[in-house]
Design a protein that fits this description.
CATH class: Alpha Beta
Shape: elongated
Number of helices: 1
Radius of gyration: 24 Å
Largest sheet: 5 strands, antiparallel
Strand content: 25-35%
Number of strands: 10
CATH topology: minor pseudopilin epsh fold
Number of domains: 1
Strand order of the largest sheet: 3-2-1-6-7
CATH superfamily: minor pseudopilin epsh domain
Distance between the termini: 69 Å
CATH architecture: 3-Layer(bab) Sandwich
Order of helices and strands: HEEEEEEEEEE
Helix content: 25-40%
Length: 143
């Protein structure tokens, strides 16, 4: 007798292994998504800072980046605001005022390329990203 095909036990074992692998990958991607969104938000804020500096250099006029710490919004003055995720907290470490957690914080970009502002800290859960601003040359450093 020539039997071809799979036994019921073999089919059940393969289906079990496939569902186990799918379950593990789903857990991995479910945990990776919030971290990716958080990293993207930090990169977008850093890009907005660089854009404000570039506008100040090109136009030869001061540009202001407004950061609303209570509403978790930020944007270049006169160009609209962008919102951060509700689970993200934002604070600013100002060289003269110390740690700022409330209100609206202004970062000023000079036509010469300099910047007046502190280090912006984004936090979400256990993850924290600092966006440092060089006051002389206006460079942005993400840590």
């Amino acid at each position: 007798m020539n039997n071809r095909g799979f036994t019921l036990l073999e089919v059940i074992i393969v289906l079990f292994l496939i569902s186990l692998i799918m379950g593990l990958t789903t857990l991995y991607f479910a945990n990776a998504l919030p971290t990716s969104k958080f990293n993207a938000a930090a990169r977008e804020l850093a890009a907005t800072i660089r854009y404000a500096r570039t506008l100040a250099l090109i136009k030869g006029k001061f540009q202001t980046l407004n950061i609303d710490l209570d509403a978790k919004k930020y944007g270049i003055e006169g160009r609209g605001d962008k919102s951060l995720d509700s689970g993200t907290t934002i604070t600013v470490l100002d060289p003269s005022a110390g740690e700022v957690r409330n209100g609206i914080y202004h970062v000023y970009f000079e036509p010469s390329g300099g910047v007046e502002g502190g280090t912006i800290v984004l936090a979400s859960g256990k993850k924290q990203i600092s966006i440092g601003l060089d006051p002389v040359v206006g460079s942005v450093v993400i840590k």
